[in-house]
């Protein structure tokens, strides 16, 4: 399976570099996985974090790299330490022993073959938690198909619709066709109806996330409109207010400021005006860098 790294066409960037021979593509990922943090994480949606936390594994390197990324220290600069599939498998088991509700793979797209090897190994050693795939949404359908049967919960972002916006903020003209094809593939694997355990933790399903950006309310409306027309109403939508100006945001006005409460209220109004019913909202006080983990590679 490691052969899929050379040449690498794992994601829609399609770099074609040979990562097995040290070549580096857009995401910055090499042959080994690079991980910035593995720990119980309490700041996902309540049905994912629960009371005992989500077993988050934050991978370094990213195939999207938005200019405002709140995790830029790991997505752009690849802080972290390298580890093998076997080491990752044992980390999954360590998280399970700590009592987390699930294993939460954060931005794993550049490492899907190695993650699958780790999951195979960990399952054989007793891993029995649901696996959450936490994604920018910029995923190739072919790579998602490799994950069928390994992922129980998909947590894709859906950031923008307009090519001019995705080009400006993520250097990805094709973000909209890519993310919509990815969401359809996720739906075909998992089905439209979420399943929850007796503690209210999602054990199977899809939650679509949309981060409301300052000055880009028209994109929020377009995203929600597409969801309304194309996604079963049982699929929850998480409308996020936690934007903070970070990394290069000040170079891309109006991203250099926080989201205004009125903007978030209008986003919520759009959600309800469209007749969407199932989802999560955030307090605007969530917009703080306090929620960004220390990237200590532990
Ligand atoms: S995973 Fe990385 S190297 Fe491979 S195609 Fe995507 S951006 Fe390029």
What does this molecule look like?
- This protein has 298 residues and is α/β, with parallel strands linked by helices.
- It contains 9 helices and 11 strands.
- The strands form 2 sheets. It has an 8-stranded mixed β-sheet with strand order 3-1-2-4-5-6-8-7. A 3-stranded parallel β-sheet has the order 9-10-11, with no helix packed on it.
- A hairpin with a 5-residue loop joins strand 7 and strand 8.
- Helix 3 crosses helix 4 and helix 8 packs parallel to helix 9.
- It is globular and about 50 Å long.
- It starts with 32 loop residues before the first strand and ends in a 17-residue tail after the last strand.
- Iron/sulfur cluster binds next to loops.
């Amino acid at each position: 399976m490691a052969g899929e790294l050379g040449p690498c066409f794992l994601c829609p960037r399609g770099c074609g570099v040979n990562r097995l021979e040290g070549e580096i593509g857009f995401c910055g990922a090499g042959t080994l996985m690079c991980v910035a943090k593995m720990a119980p994480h309490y700041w996902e949606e309540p049905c994912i974090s629960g009371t005992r936390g989500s077993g988050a594994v934050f991978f370094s390197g990213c195939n999207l790299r938005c200019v405002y990324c709140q995790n830029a220290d790991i997505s752009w600069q690849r802080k972290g330490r390298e580890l093998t599939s076997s080491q990752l498998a044992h980390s999954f088991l360590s998280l399970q022993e700590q009592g987390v509700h699930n294993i939460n793979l954060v931005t794993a797209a550049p490492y899907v073959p190695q993650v699958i090897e780790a999951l195979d190994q960990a399952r054989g050693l007793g891993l029995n938690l649901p696996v959450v795939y936490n994604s920018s949404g910029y995923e190739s359908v072919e790579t998602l198909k490799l994950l069928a049967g390994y992922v129980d919960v998909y947590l894709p972002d859906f950031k923008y619709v307009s090519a001019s916006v995705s080009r400006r903020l993520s250097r990805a003209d094709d973000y909209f066709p890519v993310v919509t094809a990815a969401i359809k593939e996720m739906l075909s694997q998992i089905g439209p109806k979420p399943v929850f355990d007796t503690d209210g933790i999602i054990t199977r399903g899809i939650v679509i996330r949309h981060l409301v950006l300052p000055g880009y309310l028209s994109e929020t409306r377009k995203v929600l409109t597409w969801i309304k027309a194309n996604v079963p109403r049982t699929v929850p939508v998480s409308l996020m207010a936690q934007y903070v100006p970070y990394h290069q945001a000040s170079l891309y006005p109006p991203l250099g400021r926080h989201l205004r409460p009125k903007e978030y209220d209008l986003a919520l109004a759009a959600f309800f005006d469209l007749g969407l019913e199932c989802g999560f909202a955030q307090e605007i006080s969530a917009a703080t860098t306090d929620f960004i983990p220390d990237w200590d590679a532990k």
